[in-house]
Amino acid sequence: MAVPDPDRARSKAASMNLLQEVMDHPLDPGYIAAKQRLRDRPRHTIWSTATWTIVAIVAGVALAAAVVQLRAPKPAVTETRALLASEITERRESVRSLEAQNEALHKQISTLSSQVLSAAGTATATANLGEAIALCSTPVTGEGVVAVVSDGPGADTDDAARVQDSDLQALVNQLWVSGAEAVTINGTRIGPTSAIRGAGGAILVSLVALSAPYTVQAIGSANGLQIAIARSNVADEFSQLHTAYGIGLEISGSSSISMPGAAIPALKYAKPVAD
C-alpha cells in the first residue's frame, strides 16, 4: 500500500491557493490604490476651469505688455538717435559744400595756370600740360571705354559674391597697361597716389567710399582698350568669377568721356632726376 507524500500534497495545495488568489484579486494592490486616489481627486468644475482660463489670459496679457514696454524705444534714446542723424546730415551737406568750393578753386587754378603757361610759350605749355595729365590734376575729355563691375546675386549673404578691391585693382592696372590715359571709378579720378583698398564691406578709392555697381571709365582708344581687355588675363579672371559667384563685367566703347581733375597731392620731398 502506497503512502502519500506530505510535501507533494502541500505543494499542490499552495499552487491551488495561488491560482485562487489570482482569480479573486486580478489587479495589483498598488494599482488599485492609485486608481482609487484618482477617483477620490476632486473633479474640475466649470468655475475652476474658468478661473484657470482667466489666470492664463491675464498672465499672457501681462507678458505681452512687458515685452512691448521693453522693446519700445525710450525717449532719451530716440532723441539721441535723432540728434545724431541730424548731425550726420549737416556734416554731409558741409562736406558737399566744401567739395564744391574745392572744385571751383581747382578750376580757377587750372585756368590761371593755363594763362600763365600760354604766355610762357608753346613748348613750356605743352610740357606742363603733360605733367598735369600725368598728375591727373586737369580735367580731360576723349573717347574710351566704360566698364561696369557688379556684385553677384548672393552678395548679401556671401562675401565671396562681392566685388573685391583686388578685382578693381586688376582691372585698372590692365587699363593702364593697355594704353589708358585717364581712369575714374564711380567718378573718382585715379592718380599716381590713388589707392584702391577694402575697408570692412566697402571699397575706398582715394579715401572715398564707393558701393557697387562700380563704373570704371578709361580714356584712350576705344577699340584698342576693348581688344586688350578681352585678350588679357583679367577677362579670364572675371569670367571665372561670373561662373562661380555671378560677378558681372560689361565693357562698352564711348565716343566722349569727361573726367574731372584730381586734387594735387602735397609735395613733401623731391630731388632732381639724374640725367
From TrEMBL:
Pfam families: DUF881 (PF05949)
Parts of the chain that traverse the membrane: 45-68
InterPro entries: DUF881
CC terms in the record's Gene Ontology section: plasma membrane
Record has Signal as a keyword: no
Residues making up the signal peptide according to the UniProt record: none
Domain of life: Bacteria
Keyword Coiled coil attributed: yes
Keywords on record: Coiled coil, Membrane, Transmembrane, Transmembrane helix
Coiled coil: 88-115
Family, similarity comment: Belongs to the UPF0749 family.
Protein name: Uncharacterized protein YlxW (UPF0749 family)
